[in-house]
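Extended Data, panel c. Modelled sequence:
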Amino acid sequence: MRNAFADLHIHIGRANGRPVKITASRSLTLASLLEDTVSRKGLDMIGIVDAGTAPVLAEIEQMVEKGVLRTHHRGGFIAPHGVMLLTGCEVETQEGVHVIVYLPHLDSLYKYQKYMRSRVKNQELSTQRCQASMVELINLAHLLEGVFCPAHAFTPHKGFYGMLSPSFRSYLGKEVDHIRALELGLSADTEMADTISETRQFTFLSNSDAHSTGNVGREYNLLRVAELSFEEFRKAVYEEEGRRVLANYGMDPLMG
């Protein structure tokens, strides 16, 4: 077993010369992230959340073909410097909240793209409004052997607690039992989240939501895993076989 530092919510500004996340820096590319930024930040595992877009998925495919990325048999991609790249897809649900679906393989990303084809107007750009509910996306994540995670749940802008409902269980009913990961967001910390009793079933994640290279790693997690792979990330979230999230480190919520 080993410890791993992980920032699992990073945006890509451009891919294949095309814009992906309009509000992200043009210099925040997958190549720059993998070749320079991550090694300087001391991260072992990173999650990009724009992998469901056409430009980013195409770039991942190209990097795999060139050997820059290597697929891991337990999910995820082995990047330069031994960093584990996890692929996630952030989207805005019918309810208006942001969620992330983390997916293990290229095949699951292809299936996600196919599902979104008739539900998102522009698959070139990230975090688009989609014609699918939270429940539908929870079920999609389960079907594709992924991990569903409400994004920045406490933020007033597009966070579940921040703008939609004071309770997952009252809003989702029994479907809440399929959620294990909960991203707190820059405006909340573990102490704040612990004041809501229903959050005790969740594994808290603190991530940077970086839109520029300088912000990568401003919030991060410490995972206890056997190796760097998607399956080990999933086990840490679900606290299986001794894997778990040991700690999540974030900014003061007053700053976020």
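The longest helix spans residues 54-66. This feature is highlighted in the accompanying rendering.
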